[in-house]
Amino acid sequence: MKYKMDSGELDKRLKQFIPYLSNQVQYAQRVLGSQRIQPITQSNWYQPREIVLGNPADQPAFLPLTDQFPLSGQGWQAIDQYLLKHQTRAFLVLWKGQLVHQFYHQFKPHYQFNSMSMLKTLVALMVGIAIDQGLIADVHVKAAEFLPEWQHDQRREISIEHLLSMQSGLKSDVKVDAKTWVLPIIPLYLGDEIERTALALPAVAPPGRYFEYNNYNTQLLGIILQRASGLSAAQFLSKYVWQPLHCHSGFLWLDKPNGQARTFGAFFAQAEDWLRVGQLFVNRGRFQGQQIVSEQWLDEMQVPRNTPARGVMDGRADYGYQLWLKAHDYGLIRGIPWYEATHATTAFADDELFYFEGLRGQCLFIHPRHDLVVLRMGERPKKDWDMSWMINQLCQALP
User: Fold this and answer.
1) What's the sign of the alpha-carbon dihedral 329, 334, 338, 340?
2) Which ranges carry the Beta-lactamase-related domain (predicted)?
3) Helix or strand or coil: residue 357?
4) Rounded to an integer, what distance in angstroms lies between the CA atom of residue 381 and that of residue 252?
5) d(CA 389, CA 387)
């Protein structure tokens, strides 16, 4: 006997299918659109968004340029030419709190750019502030305290520290799912239900066993911050970092109108404002007399977490709390696929250097002892790019 669908049930099925089809069309448009843009400089593509309010007057002064750094004009020219060859759009050097060099190409100081995963380190700063404020007890708190969706499976053992140090044991976001044939990073980057997507990612190993760079870890930290504070990611960032630093307003990319921010990457701000963030590490968390983040937290961020001494297999001692501590070949790091590799053919000349890093060569280098903060942003460098060459030239010029 054949089943015959009555008109009421047919109407119900159609009502369910049409939104699904619309979502799939929107998803396909995002996928295709993302392949046509220059993702660092074309900020208008990233919609919808939530504003991260900066200075209340929204008119922070741009830094005056001085000529105090002990590097010859020929030395600066060699660095600028190298960066120009590698599609750099902005290169800024802050030394002893003074802007001593700036280089812009097809970009202007008031433009906003996509920081990509530099946002991850900013999220770690925000976690530290949440601990300072008593919103989170400490890094050893289980994530399931804020994510009750995890309380009934093995993910209940994952701590906030495991997420910060990329040791959660969650399923890789860059390996094709055998059931759906989709890279898990795609719905996180382009989907419109990223909270549900992030909370559904399963664990494949106990936490603390190995380091694997995974964008879901930072997205989950963003969800925890929102649940702990009652603020959206943009509101938290504005209240505790961006306004206190007198930055210009920026924006976070949302999955849908009034939705969830993509806290694993894609914060748009002006280049100079990142120098203010870097200077926090030099000034031990203070800005104009205000303690924005504790000294203790900044120190904790810089402790290598992926080491054999901590029981981490294949430890490299190059990662703290969402912070890179050594120059390296990204193609050799678990969780970063070869096609996104950003190479360093030589080590840093000084072991005290550390940095924020975003896809396609977005880097904020910090050397507290030298009172040095350096930003490089731009599109994808060429294959012979050496991310450590430029910063080594600057460090070697200093006494």
Assistant:
1) negative
2) 90-382
3) strand
4) 24
5) 6
Helix (H) or strand (E) holding 100: strand 98-104
206 class by beta-carbon count within 10 Å (0-12 exposed, 13-18 middle, 19+ buried): middle
CA distance 58 to 270: 12
Separation of alpha carbons 77 and 159, rounded Å: 47
Residue corresponding to tokens 């904020």: 364
Lowest mean pLDDT of 22-36, 83-97, 354-368, name the range: 22-36
Residue 343 and residue 331 in contact, taking contact as beta carbons nearer than 8 Å: yes
Q: Closest Cα to residue 160, out of 355, 321, 317, 356?
A: 321
For the segment 171-182, what is each residue's pLDDT rounded down to a tens digit?
A: 999 888 777 677
Q: Which residue matches tokens 């002892």?
A: 369
Stated as kind and residue range, the H or E segment containing 74 is helix 73-85
What is residue 262's DSSP assignment? -
For 43-396, CATH gives 3.40.710.10
**Can you give the pTM of this predicted structure?**
0.90
Q: C-alpha angle 378/40/194, rounded to 5°?
A: 145
Count CA within 13 A, CB hemisphere, residue 331: 9
Mean pLDDT of the region 317-331: 85
